[in-house]
TrEMBL record:
Any one Gene Ontology cellular component term annotated for this protein: plasma membrane
Organism of provenance: Serinicoccus chungangensis
Keywords: Membrane, Transmembrane, Transmembrane helix, Transport
PANTHER family registered for this protein in UniProt: PURINE-CYTOSINE PERMEASE FCY2-RELATED
Identification of the protein by name: Allantoin permease
Record localization: Membrane
Length: 495
């Protein structure tokens, strides 16, 4: 495949000058690959610098662990999960295609549809969740201001938020990158102001007096943070690095991706541990309306800028999700333009938000159950793809990613089998911690008894070991069984 020298590439391509990106899942032309590793900082940072991150401290403390333990799992869980995203982002530079297209190298052109379905579902779940958070926060803040906050407010908020998310995601990569660089400063300033205004509520004696929890509780909190942050984004990690220059350093891509994704949530969760550890009365409200509850301790005059920043941060994250879920939809064989795919997913997001906000009695518990369930196969897939990135010595054969008769084949049953085994084992080691709200998910945890871990009622059941086990099985399995497959692929004549 011929390559254009990065130095000779124009600073702005024709596509970049357009408002709406026309690229779908096809290979990005060399002339358009002008991004540098540090450009990855902006979309990841903007999508994760939300005060919503502070609310995670409530869930972490819910495992019954001490402040010191919570600090440890926060730093380790958030950084490690975004480091995994950074590793997979290397594939984007090597193959100029979206994440789920690149995974065809391991799974086969059509075999990729197996992880693709799970990827689409988890992306849709996340972006809908973020939209719901934005609507609920708007209603709560409006109530505090005395401006209503009832059904009309929720309807208008839903319409505006959905329009922002869908509009930006339909516009595509270049518009989103510019938008994220602006939102970073706005949301960062508002979040910093929130911390300064609530700092006097911290009671270090109360925070540090929390008793330490057992090992299984620490692991449970770690898994929660990993799935809630980096592993929640990992299936789209290469979507933004596919515009990187060919000569971009893989190490730099990992660094900026990890730094952009992990910096804000690490600091925010750490601050949340201090704040919520000092104000335990916040925990109950956070369960159903995290951002709105955090707003209740602010002075009235700051509520409007706080709301705008919080909503824009959530919109920022949802935009990344919608954009990438549209690409995943295309990778499953839906033959429509990329903007149309984003519009379809945006419509589903809007309908899901309307149903939850206006009709559902509870959504957080079913969502968390849904997240852990999908997190198991996605973790297995992530392990396989990280191992695939580590095994490959050459760039991807970009044409073969779209040809079932090419070097990557139609179905790679080894990868599909590893993912299947990892998912079956993983689901057997997690439980539905929201049995009443999501009774449809009570089938999990079937290995906890046979393996001597105390069954579904034992303390290890709450650790959700299945996510880590699935990740490990995927990584080690493909590292061992996929090595010869990758070598054979790379020895074939370049097309």
């Amino acid at each position: 495949m011929s390559q254009t020298s990065p130095a000779a590439a124009p600073r702005l391509s024709e596509t970049e000058r357009r408002l709406v990106e026309t690229n779908g899942i096809e290979i990005i032309a060399e002339a358009e690959r002008t991004a540098s590793p540090h450009d990855l900082f902006w979309p990841w940072f903007a999508a994760n610098i939300s005060v919503f991150g502070i609310s995670y401290a409530s869930y972490v403390f819910g495992f019954g662990i001490s402040f010191a333990q919570a600090v440890l799992v926060t730093v380790l869980g958030v950084v490690a999960s975004f480091l995994a995203c950074g590793i997979i982002a290397i594939a984007g530079k090597r193959g100029s295609a979206p994440t789920m297209v690149l995974s065809r190298a391991a799974f086969g052109v059509n075999g990729q549809k197996v992880p693709g379905v799970f990827s689409w579902l988890i992306s849709m779940g996340w972006e809908t969740f973020l939209a719901i958070m934005a609507v609920l926060a708007t209603a709560t803040v409006f109530t505090q201001l005395g401006w209503g906050g009832g059904t009309l407010t929720s309807v208008l908020a839903c319409a505006v938020i959905a329009a922002l998310i869908v509009g930006a995601s339909v516009a595509g990569y270049h518009t989103i990158m510019r938008m994220q660089s602006v939102l970073t400063w706005l949301t960062g300033a508002a979040t910093t102001a929130y911390i300064l205004m609530t700092w006097d509520r911290i009671d270090l004696a109360a925070v540090t007096s929390r008793e330490a929890g057992p090992t299984e509780a620490v692991i449970g909190a770690l898994v929660l943070l990993m799935t809630g942050f980096g592993l929640g984004w990992i299936n789209i990690a290469a979507d933004w690095s596919r515009y990187q220059r060919r000569d971009a350093s893989g190490g730099a891509i990992v660094l900026w991706n990890t730094l952009g994704g992990a910096l804000a949530p690490t600091l925010l969760v750490l601050y949340g541990l201090l704040l919520i550890g000092s104000q335990p009365e916040l925990e109950e409200g956070i369960v159903n309306d995290p951002i709105g509850t955090l707003a209740t301790i602010l002075p009235i005059w700051f509520l409007v800028p706080f709301l705008l920043a919080a909503v824009l941060a959530l919109v920022s994250g949802a935009v990344l999700g919608i954009y990438s879920s549209g690409l995943t939809l295309l990778s499953l064989g839906i033959d429509i333009p990329r903007p149309a795919a984003a519009l379809i997913d945006g419509t589903i997001l809007t309908l899901g938000t309307i149903w939850v906000v206006f009709f559902a009695q509870s959504f957080l518990a079913p969502f968390q159950s849904f997240l852990i369930t999908l997190g198991v196969p996605i973790a297995a897939w992530a392990g396989i793809l990280m191992a695939d990135v580590a095994l490959r010595r050459r760039d991807y054969d970009e044409q073969a990613l779209f040809d079932p008769r090419g070097r990557y084949g139609d179905w790679n049953w080894t990868a599909v089998g590893i993912m299947g085994v990892a998912a079956v084992v993983g689901w057997g080691l997690v439980i539905n911690t929201f049995a009443e709200a999501a009774a449809w998910n009570n089938w999990q945890g079937y290995l906890l008894g046979p393996l001597g871990l105390g069954g579904k009622e034992g303390t290890w059941a709450w650790a959700n070991l299945g996510v880590l086990v699935a990740l490990a099985i995927g990584f080690v399995g493909w590292l061992v069984l996929g090595r010869r497959i990758v070598r054979r692929q790379e020895l074939e004549e370049q097309v």
